[in-house]
């Protein structure tokens, strides 16, 4: 199973600790196993199937590590990135019969995770679900020569999605684990995966107001951050319908196998095409899938990249297009939404917009006055139309 994924056994492997921060644009992923041959490209850290990692030249290797290990990637605590980019070597390695300890690589300069004990909780939960015990983990904190390192291609990568055979392997590997833990537990039938309790950024304005209307029609508002890891998976696989607003919560499905979810939908927040990356995660794991296109209008962002000064769209805000979302929910048989009015929505959106600006303008952030002025103008135009035209 999964023999199509690349694999290499590397004697005296050179492993570089990562620069901090591990994930950054445009020069992130500097470290890891030094793999420079063209044939090794699939074994490197990839996005869209292409290597994006780098290695520091002329490094010295202060440590020697005897024994055999399986490369498991960097230590990283951001849930979305860990699930999208770093977890996908473990199952392919285990299915190959590679039962050696997992080798995680820490960072230089700033090293908050020198041992398994300091791993982020989300990593510990995911590893426990995959039957990885603390004694199965080795952390490299300095440049190291490893006696034998087994490197297996990741089964999925960010923006590229799962590779052939991977979701089928996940169904066989992870399905029984969920059955053993939660098989007899009943879960809600319809889920809306909420972002409304997160910090006010990357948000749909008025989302809490919208959720209240969904609850009246049988939806459960599901906040992943309030649940441990395996119950999240169990909710998704047992629901008949799951609606995901575009965002990191989609990556919570990454260890579900093909067809393990029922009817899944993504509600886009932006118009820049990035939502297709989330589709590549959710659709292969669902028995049916649809994108709720046109149901939001992206207004802009108050934040800018520190160097390029371009607006950070993933941290911006979107306006709910009531006519289109009502039509979409009815067309898919999800809800009737008969009590939504533009005047009420506009009032709720105004509250969220002011909350967003207050939060983003705090000292030390990425607030940009020019982008904020443009965003505010776009919002005021929408709000004025909503309050004038009513209901």
Secondary structure layout:
Layout: E1 7-16, E2 18-19, E3 32-33, E4 46-47, E5 50-51, E6 63-74, H1 79-86, H2 90-95, E7 102-105, E8 107-108, H3 121-129, E9 137-140, E10 144-152, E11 156-157, E12 161-162, H4 166-182, E13 190-193, E14 203-204, H5 207-216, E15 220-222, H6 229-238, E16 241-245, E17 261-267, H7 275-282, E18 286-291, E19 296-300, E20 317-320, H8 322-331, H9 342-360, H10 369-389
Parallel strand pairs: 2-8, 6-7, 6-10, 7-9, 13-15, 13-16, 14-20, 16-17, 17-18
Antiparallel strand pairs: 1-3, 1-10, 4-5, 11-12, 19-20
Helix pairs in contact: 9-10
- The number of helical segments is 10
Q: How many angstroms does the end-to-end distance come to?
A: 57 Å
Strand segment tally: 20
Unreliable stretches: none
Strand order of the largest sheet: 3-1-10-6-7-9
Shape: globular
Tell me the number of structural domains: 2
The level of helicity is: 25-40%
**Quick check: average pLDDT?**
95
Strand content: 15-25%
**Rg from Cα:** 22 Å
What is the N-to-C succession of helices and strands? EEEEEEHHEEHEEEEHEEHEHEEHEEEHHH
Biggest sheet, open or closed, and with what strands and sense?
Answer: 6 strands, mixed
Q: Which structural class do you get from the secondary structure elements? A: alpha/beta
Description:
By secondary structure, the chain is an alpha/beta fold. It has 2 domains: 7-162, no CATH class; 166-389, no CATH class. Helices cover 30% and strands 23% of the residues. The chain contains 10 helices and 20 strands. A 6-stranded mixed sheet has the order 3-1-10-6-7-9. The protein has a 5-stranded parallel sheet with strand order 15-13-16-17-18. Helix 9 (342-360) packs antiparallel against helix 10 (369-389). The longest helix is centred in the C-terminal third of the chain and has 21 residues, at 369-389. The radius of gyration is 22 Å and the shape is globular. The relative contact order is 0.11. The mean pLDDT is 95.
